[in-house]
């Protein structure tokens, strides 16, 4: 009877140990997946930021070009008006 009880206790200890290892493996896998998901999210955010910055640069360049054209046109009109006033 003592041998059966002892064997049962050893079997139970082995089962608890095996379950503990599976739990650790599952926790490790979950942590690895969380790290991968975080990396993917960070990369996606970085790409979106780069795209937005590129769009902002393009819009700024376009606005600057329009401002230069408007300034040239205004200057040309001012020069013409000055020429007409002198003559």
Could you characterize the architecture of this molecule?
This protein is mainly alpha-helical and 87 residues long. Helix content is 98%, strand content 0%. It contains 1 helix and no strands. The chain has one helix at 2-86. The protein is rod-shaped and about 125 Å long. The chain starts with a helix and ends with a helix.
Cα-atom radius of gyration: 37 Å
What would you call the shape? rod-shaped
Main β-sheet description: none
**Uncertain segments:** none
Order of helices and strands: H
* Strand-pairing-aware structural class: mainly alpha
Beta-strand share of residues: under 5%
Q: How many separate helices? A: 1
Strand-helix topology:
Layout: H1 2-86
List keywords for this structure.
87 residues; mainly alpha; 1 helix; 98% helix; 0% strand
Summary?
By secondary structure, the protein is mostly helical. 98% of the residues lie in helices and 0% in strands.
